[in-house]
Amino acid sequence: MKCVNKYLSVGGLLLGLGAWANADVIPVYQIKDTAETYLQTTITHDIYRYSSSIQLNDVVVTDKEGNKLPYRITPPSTQSSEQSHQKSVRFFPVAVGVPPEIILALSSASIRLDDNGISVSAEKTTNTELQEQTAPIDFYVVDLSELRERADKLIVNWQVNETNQYLEVQVSGTNDLTNWAPLAQGTLAQLQKDGERLTSNKLTLNIAEKQYAYLRLKFTRGGEKLELTDVHVENTDRIPNIPPADIWNVNGELADEQDSALRSADLKSTSVAAWEFTREDISPLNAVSLDLGTTAYGDSIKVFSRSSEKKSWQLVHQGVWFNAQVGSEWQHSNPISLQAASEAHWRIEFNEQVRKTLKPSLVFHRQPQHLQFIANNAAPYNISIDDQAAPDNQQNNLQIFSQLLSNKEAKWTQVKYEELNPSISSFARHATVFSWKTILFWVVLLAAVGALVFVAVRLVGQMKNHTESPQ
Question: In terms of Cα–Cα distance, which of 431, 320, 414 is closest to 52?
Answer without folding.
Answer: 431
